[in-house]
Amino acid sequence: MIPKTPVMRRCISCRTTFDRNNLFKITNDHKLGIMLNQGTGRSAYICKSKKCCTDSKLQKKLQKALKSILNPDFFDIFKREIANYN
Fold first, then answer.
1. Is residue 2, in this structure, part of any structural domain at all?
2. Is 14 helix (H, G, I), strand (E, B) or coil?
């Protein structure tokens, strides 16, 4: 049997490569809108470090990566999710 290699993705804030399981996934689903850790479509990844999650330019980086304008309510949900994780 061939051993599976981990799927690697890059954090949009610190530009470091991580295993996909160690990142938050933010997806712009064409039907359901912006979702956290689920869905299919254009995605951006943010590592779970405090520095990257509280980056002052995170909103602009996410909008550029997802190619859409983000609702301010999304950041409230995102901050609550980060608080639950830490």
1. no
2. coil
Token readout for 68 is 């859409």
Backbone angles phi, psi at 4, to 5 degrees: -75, 135
Return the closest-CA partner of residue 21 out of 35, 31, 9, 34. 9
Residue 49 included in any domain: yes
Which uninterrupted H or E stretch holds 13? none
Residue pLDDT, tens place only, 39-70: 898 999 999 888 888 888 888 999 999 898 88
CB environment 51-61: b (16+ within 10 A), e (fewer): ebbebeebeeb
Q: Closest Cα partner for 46 from 26, 60, 63? A: 26
Does 27 score more than 70 pLDDT?
A: yes
pTM score, two decimals? 0.84
Number of structural domains in the chain: 1
First to last CA, the chain: 37
